[in-house]
Design a protein that fits this description.
Keywords: Metal-binding, Oxidoreductase, Zinc. With 363 residues, the chain is of the alpha/beta class. 27% of the residues lie in helices and 26% in strands.
């Protein structure tokens, strides 16, 4: 028995990252282990990891579900350093991406339809447990071991630091835009909020020739939205005159805002049969304006990331159209300042940690 344990200990992968230990959300160096690289696994040296707003929420346990210690990060790009004997999708030296999930049951109705993101047993990249009971730790760390099924291939022409956020922010908007038929030439898409998710929605929509209107509380974002991102129209969400002119003009709206806000003015911007898709997640439940929905046969729906097949499709689409996120690359020790700035929406449009060059892993 002792011999088996010693072998297992030799196979365990020593890892190093930054973790929060309590609801202060303060991150500090943390030594932990990853599982041994299994037959279907790849081991990744993490190069970059994006910072999602949910990292801040979970580090501080603002939704009451955090398991401490927690190593955040689910927008991961890295170099494959080891592959299991059954791996066919990757070889050593390839660049791989890992997003919000690292496991699912692989057999339920959702999984068999490439919708692992809706599997009841889906395993988040961090703050969850694997089937064997071990903890998942995220990408604010030096390495990751993951089943190849839950990693995507990153094409050579994509800037890696700008690719990392697409594994959460990108797929979160791409999936509903595809599913609800909003990524088509000539469609008129509204995008609520011009942050990490919103600017990706704009880029994807413009790439297919859609008309894009951004709806924002921040007038100071208009110039960059129009001149840099190619937005067609820019509405201030509290300007009733602007909203009145735009009523009934949009085929669909992607709402990326996680702060509390009214939905009624947004439903009024939709055409008959229009769709309001919620991908932001306000903790406070919104009021549901039922009567306007009935009169316009309008739809309010939600969407959560995407399955692995669709995530690879999104990355390939981005490579074809030379799309990456607009990012601010930061060192690991800037993360607390980044959290503070994210809370104030002071970033264009995503922070990305230069893990490989600034984590200073001892392993």
């Amino acid at each position: 028995m002792s011999q088996e344990i010693s072998v297992a200990e030799e196979e365990v992968v020593k890892a190093y990252g930054w973790a929060a230990r309590d609801s202060s959300g303060v991150l500090s160096p943390f030594h932990f282990t990853r599982r041994a690289t299994g037959n279907n696994d790849i081991r990744i040296k993490i190069l970059y990891c994006g910072i999602c707003h949910s990292d801040l929420h979970l580090a501080k346990d603002e939704v009451g579900m955090t398991i401490y210690p927690i190593v955040p990060g689910h927008e991961i790009v890295g170099e494959v350093t080891k592959v299991g004997c059954n791996v066919t999708k990757f070889k050593v030296g390839d660049i791989a991406g890992v997003g919000c999930m690292v496991g699912s049951c692989r057999s339920c109705n959702n999984c068999t339809q490439d919708l692992e993101n809706y599997c009841p047993k889906m395993v988040w990249t961090y703050n969850k447990h694997h089937e064997d009971g071990s903890r998942t730790f995220g990408g604010y760390s030096d390495k990751l071991v993951v089943d190849e099924h839950f990693a995507v291939q990153i094409p050579d022409n994509l800037l890696l630091q700008g690719t990392a956020p697409m594994l959460c922010a990108g797929i979160t908007v791409y999936s509903p835009m595809r599913y609800f038929g909003l990524m088509e030439p000539g469609k008129h898409l509204g995008v609520v909020g011009l942050g990490g998710l919103g600017h990706m929605a704009v880029k994807f929509a413009k790439a297919v020739g859609a008309k894009v209107t951004v709806i924002s509380t921040s007038p100071n974002k208009k110039k960059e939205a129009v001149e840099q991102l190619g937005v067609d129209e820019f509405l201030i969400s509290h300007d009733q005159e602007q909203l009145q002119v735009a009523m009934g003009t949009m085929d669909g709206i992607i709402d990326t805002v996680s702060a509390p806000h009214p939905l009624l003015p947004l439903t009024e911007l939709l055409k008959t049969n229009g769709k309001l898709i919620l991908v932001g997640a306000p903790i406070q439940p919104p009021e549901l304006p039922v009567f306007p929905l009935i009169l316009g046969r309008k739809l309010i729906a939600g969407s959560a990331i995407g399955g692995m097949k669709e995530t690879q499709e999104m990355i390939d689409f981005a490579a074809k159209h030379n799309i990456t996120a607009d990012v601010e690359v930061i060192p690991m020790d800037y993360v607390h300042t980044a959290f503070e700035r994210i809370a104030k929406a002071d970033v264009k449009y995503r922070f990305v940690i230069d893990v490989a060059n600034t984590l200073n892993s001892p392993y």
